[in-house]
Design goal:
The protein has about 400 residues and is of the alpha+beta class. The chain has helices at about 55-65, 85-105, 125-135, 145-150, 205-215, 250-275, 295-305, 305-315, 320-330, 360-370, 395-400, and strands at about 15-20, 35-40, 45-50, 75-80, 110-120, 160-165, 170-180, 190-195, 230-235, 280-290, 340-345, 345-350, 355, 370-380, 385-390. It folds into two domains: about 15-275, L-amino peptidase D-ALA esterase/amidase (4-Layer Sandwich), CATH 3.60.70.12; about 280-400, Ubiquitin-like (UB roll) (Roll), CATH 3.10.20. Strand 6 and strand 7 (about 170-180) form a beta hairpin. The two termini are about 20 Å apart. The model has no long low-confidence stretch (mean pLDDT about 95).
Length: about 400
């Protein structure tokens, strides 16, 4: 059960981007598990991918194709990661791309593959190929809901976000989907994410936006600290709008578009955390007063990845000693703990490195009993700050992952 209700609002179609889902029966029968995304000619793409050394065959191919040709199709499957499958896995991925290339009448390099699911099992290419005619027939600009459902694995609900804005009198849309609930500690991406806009924007700026948005969203979440073999996040721009192309980051339109894209990225990434496997808590960790951004992140992740902190969250136990322990374990050089303050949900627990004299256990208990709260750390050594989002660690998380392959 995910933490909190999400008021999604309307999901706007993106002119020039069509999506079609189909059922291939990769892992389960009678559910969509193949997604095809079609981009109009003239569209552009940028992406970020996992830094896991055991990256899956589709990640390697997608990186290569993204740098080789204009992208026209994205092919996504759930139920099988096609990771750690060697040459046969690469061949299987190419077999599916060859089929899309033929049906779509585009060069094979214009097709990007993506897979998610069980690691170490060969991709059932023929099942996907057999489902492609259905996916092509289903292509529509209104296909976002079906698309979000088709890429789910252990997710309990689909993740979608959409905003509409005005740039130079033109109606601009940014809409995206994502999947992920476990094996989440993205490193330049998320499990899978696809965000599209009809804005006209220079390719180099699209690449820049892709990186910036990921670093303010998907690269700031963690559920269990494991970076997947298959992480990928793709930003698409169809250019199907009446606006003048954005060619400079100093353009007012660029700042408006940047804000909208980051808003969608952050919504999707936080939906992933809320739907974390077995999660009962949604926790924001704010670290301020750092000498640089990296030490703020190091401390935030040290807290978020501590099994002792995460299990205390699950138990609604304000065991704040575990938080300060995690801060001290972050490996920050010359950290003066006498300057550190710690608060939870606005209740100050630690002041200047020691227990705050006004702190009462019942106040901390009230905060930790809530499904959503923030942990605020002030380091008192600089002007930098960072925020990440995480979950607790529950019995259900262990059960889900113990039974994942069954």
């Amino acid at each position: 059960m995910a933490v909190g209700e999400i008021a999604l609002g309307p999901i706007y179609p993106v002119p020039g981007i069509r999506l079609g889902a189909a059922a291939a029966g990769i892992k389960r029968k009678n559910r969509d598990d193949v997604l095809l995304i079609a981009l109009d000619e003239g569209s552009s793409c940028a992406g970020v991918f996992t830094q896991n050394a055991f990256c899956a065959a589709p990640v390697t191919i997608a990186r290569q194709h993204l740098d080789t040709a204009a992208t026209r199709y994205l092919l996504v499957n759930s139920g099988n990661a096609n990771a750690c499958t060697g040459a046969p896995g690469t061949a299987a991925a190419f077999d599916t791309l060859r089929a899309v290339s033929s049906l779509g009448d585009v060069p094979m390099a214009s097709v990007l593959p993506f897979s998610t699911g069980v690691i170490g099992e060969l991709l059932p290419a023929q099942k996907i190929i057999d489902a492609l005619p259905e996916a092509f027939s289903a292509l529509t600009e209104d296909g976002w809901q079906a698309a979000a459902a088709a890429i789910m694995t252990t997710d309990t609900r689909p993740k979608l976000a959409s905003v509409k804005l005005d740039i130079e009198g033109a109606e601009i849309v940014v809409t995206g989907i994502a999947k992920g609930a476990g094996m989440i500690r993205p490193n330049m991406a998320t499990m899978l994410g696809y965000i599209a806009t009809n804005a006209k924007i220079d390719q180099s700026l699209l690449v820049q936006l892709s990186l910036q948005a990921a670093n303010k969203s998907f690269n700031r979440i963690t559920i269990d600290g494991d970076t997947s073999t298959n992480d990928a996040c793709i930003l698409m721009a169809s250019g199907c709008s009446e606006m003048t192309e954005i060619s400079s980051a100093n353009n007012a339109g660029y700042q408006l578009l940047r804000s909208a894209i980051i808003e969608v990225y952050q919504s999707l990434s936080q939906q992933i955390v809320r739907d974390g496997e077995g999660a009962t808590k949604f926790v924001t960790i704010n670290v301020t007063g750092g000498e640089n951004l990296q030490e703020c992140l190091d401390i935030a992740y040290s807290i978020a990845h501590s099994p002792l902190v995460k299990t205390a969250m699950f138990a609604s136990d304000p065991n704040w000693g575990r938080i300060v322990c995690a801060i001290g374990n972050a490996g920050i050089a010359e950290l003066d703990v006498s300057k550190i303050d710690v608060s939870v949900g606005g209740v100050k627990i630690v002041e200047q490195g020691g227990r705050c004299s006004s702190y009462r256990e019942e106040a901390g208990q009230a905060v930790f009993s809530q499904p959503e709260f923030a942990i605020d750390i002030s380091l008192g050594r600089g002007d930098f700050s960072e925020t990440i989002w995480t979950t607790d660690l529950s019995h259900e998380y262990v059960k889900i992952n113990a039974e994942y392959r069954t």
